[in-house]
């Protein structure tokens, strides 16, 4: 195909996704090392899976958000689509977890919210085979359902991993906006057992982006238009809100959250400043002397347009990603893979 037609097609794809109000990309914006192949409709949220038996095998899982004809897509490290689950009814966010106890063995899973059916869907990794017999209903008995955000919390104990899904919705009552479910195997089908309701909401828009820090045991979520909330991920520790931060650091919406780990306890919380086409960087361990206070370290402009969702990994991945990568959704039906070294260079320069 003629290169001019390819460029024109990409431009039209961006325009169709954004309308005629494209957010500007800064001249100094970081450029992605890899841009994925296009999906048919509208990308929304990524997650990164590393094969525990072969760390050279890395797959990016991402959602294509559309009623009736959406899907869950798997990409290789060159951004090529290598597998997909279609159709899904408005899949929104996705997260992955390792070692779910299923059928007498450990299975890695990708779990996605399916807004059109008010369910979460569970698929094996890397095969993307359904394990849920059509889906797990969420927010049952509630007037407001419409699941959007999801993050998985893995709690290791002597009996094996307990894996929980923290699920947000389009709208709902403050104080119980999010529901948390333990994922369990019941006669060869993954089911969800609700263990708590929690989560304040003050932004007036919605809660979509959720991230869990397994090692430190915290859940973070973006209250669009307000701030980022922090709670314990372990339901046994209660529903006390530990922190709200980023109140004045965002142009408009607080969006995708990723956690980049430099050790078991240190690293960065990375949050999409959606309308500014940038990411705000915070210390994962909190400010010195106060683990529940977060002062922005840096704001990094990127080429991703109005990013909804992101994920990060610190493991070196070949020569392209020596310090790992950040994957960001971008308007135009694609995901961007960014070399984390570019982010780290900016952070180090500021420090």
UniProtKB/TrEMBL annotation:
Pfam families: Phytase. The keyword Signal applies. SUPFAM superfamilies: Thermostable phytase (3-phytase). InterPro entries: 6-blade_b-propeller_TolB-like (IPR011042), B-propeller_Phytase (IPR003431). Keywords: Signal. Residues 1-23 form the signal peptide. Residues 15-347 form the BPP domain. Transmembrane segments: none annotated. It comes from the Bacteria. This is Phytase. It comes from Sphingobacterium daejeonense.
